[in-house]
């Protein structure tokens, strides 16, 4: 479960990214965040694992409030999938996935790249589940396609079986068919473990297809919260249109 | 029918920024003026004139050139290169006439000696014969052994520098340092190490550790650690932050982030800068021997002080060959790893 209590965030430059957001996402729910660029989707996501510190309000994971002090113990329970995949591109697929288990390994063996056998087995298991083969283990990440890289990212995120998965526009740089595959994979793996998913997206169709619940932000404010069925064209217009600026018209021929 | 592309408005009314302005012109003129002043102060125009004169005299302009003469003197003394080693047989303990070392032979040297006969009180001329063992390539062996020592000094100087420089780099990189004070302290230590040249620290280390390779290794290691502390830290700061964020987000500590998100990304740079420092250390190891810190430099200094310029020539050619070989090796390593 994730609970936001009156969360606000102001960047050091003075722009208010989040304005008094209160929201509860029950355990096991797949919640999709919508909203135009700069609406505060990433800021909200990153408050959950402390990559952002909210300037006001509280964030709870389960019953525990996120503070700078307990970050280190809470973070291993929160997996994260990134828009730019954030993989160590010069390292192998195996090295990248097993790095997802780093918080559970003592520092000294980790420095010598020594991981317990059960973690090695888990890497193989996960890579098989996300649709990669044994031959991929020793390939460099930079040699893989975007879709394959995000599969590696998903495998890494599930290494420690986290209770929460944060996905920050996981398919923003992928083509539509691959995007659907990747999201299906992400939701399937999360549901198999009963993990809570908070995922920001730009594709309305994908949001409708995979979400249990859709939350929309606009200029840091909550403007929509409901099941996918409630996301009418009218609601979409409210989320994405900026008042006062007309849509770009095609030039008359 | 209306034109498909609207008439140009922006192209006529907007002004594209100029690449250079008056300020750039004035600044470059000032810079040129300052540079000319310093060139005159360090006698650069005179150096150019002397060099031109020397080139002219070589190609037969007839003019007398002090520079060309100087070079000719140096070359005359360095060549022919001295490769043999000559030892008087009487100075060798347990000399075995039947089993001479490979390639060596015995030469007889006769010298006219005038002695005063105590009985007749007359000066008598006599010939004295000394046996000399000549090893035709003996000095090459000596140079080879010293070269090996030079290489060992450079190698260990580099290894110790990595061991010392890497922790300093981790503490001095803004994205890994625990706080700004530690970072500042580490960066200052690194600057200090880099600010003291090997030759200077070797002078003092020789006083502390005595003549020999120990002082050389430490002098090289301290200076090179200053380089590694800077190069490695700069690479860490310039590394792609995205994988680091991914590992921080799941709660991995600084060392783990370095090992798994930074090191794989900066590895080619680390190889390149380590090879560069190794290359530099080999060259510096030949120099610091001049102050007694072991290696070929110590041999060079000794021979130079005894006016054995033929030997000096051999050493210089050997150093040149060594640097050439190392350059080839490092080019190959770079091709393989980058």
Spell out the key features of this protein.
heterodimer, A: 253 residues, alpha/beta, Rossmann fold, 4-stranded antiparallel beta sheet, 9 helices, 10 strands, 32% helix, B: mainly alpha, MetI-like fold, 12 helices, extended
Fold and architecture overview:
The complex is a heterodimer of chains A (253) and B (338). With 253 residues, chain A is an alpha/beta fold. Chain A has one domain: P-loop containing nucleotide triphosphate hydrolases (Rossmann fold). Helix content of chain A is 32%, strand content 23%. Chain A has nine helices and ten strands. A six-stranded mixed β-sheet of chain A has the order 6-7-8-3-9-10, sandwiched between helices. In chain A, helix 6 runs parallel beside helix 7. The N and C termini of chain A lie far apart (54 Å). Chain B has two domains: 52 residues, no CATH class; 199 residues, MetI-like (MetI-like fold). Chain B is 66% helix and 9% strand. Chain B has a three-stranded antiparallel β-sheet, with no helix packed on it. The radius of gyration of chain B is 31 Å and the shape is extended. The two termini of chain B are 60 Å apart.
Instruction: Give the strand line-up of the largest sheet of chain A.
Output: 6-7-8-3-9-10
CATH superfamily of chain A: P-loop containing nucleotide triphosphate hydrolases
Strand order of the largest sheet of chain B: 1-3-2
Q: What is the quaternary state of this protein?
A: heterodimer
**Which range does the strand content of chain A fall in?**
15-25%
> What's the Cα radius of gyration of chain B?
31 Å
Summed up, the domain count of chain B is 2
CATH topology of chain A: Rossmann fold
CATH architecture of chain A: 3-Layer(aba) Sandwich
Instruction: Sum up the overall morphology of chain B in one term.
Output: extended
Would you give the CATH topology of the largest domain in chain B?
MetI-like fold
Q: How many individual helices of chain A?
A: 9
Structural class of chain A: alpha/beta
Largest interface: A-B, 37 and 23 residues
Q: Tell me, briefly, the overall form of chain A.
A: globular
Largest sheet composition of chain A: 6 strands, mixed
- Helicity range of chain A: 25-40%
Number of strands of chain A: 10
Q: What top-tier CATH class of the largest domain in chain B fits best?
A: Mainly Alpha
Q: What integer is the average pLDDT of chain A?
A: 91
Classified by CATH, the class of chain A is Alpha Beta
